[in-house]
Amino acid sequence: MKEGEGRRDQQRATQLHTIRLELGRTRDFPQGTPDCGYEFVAPLNAEGHLDFEAFQQLKSHCRVHRFWVGELAQSGALLRLGRDHWVFSYEPGVDDDEPAFKFERHQFRPGEYVSITDHNGETLPFRIVSVEPFNP
Description:
136 residues, mainly beta, eight-stranded antiparallel β-barrel, globular
């Protein structure tokens, strides 16, 4: 290992966070539910926003786990497909991509909400329930 590599890896790891989203209030779940949601890893800056530069270096670590009552869990990746276009993707191609609405503008803090469009094209609200330092 070259001098400084271990320190850089440690600094990058401290930028990575595990973020848990749970379904907010919807017609089917008037109180929301912890049984539907996502847990994903992403780099955040000090203000809690997605860190674009760190993402470029750390995208191989940016994974997503989708859990949904009555469905099989899915694992995939957080992808940035353009300046303002973030998706959760589970298979090659775009058919299963789930776009995240204005992810680049959100502050990832517990209690805040984000919107994600699911496989069926329905945009749903998700509450951020936790943001923890990534622990590989």
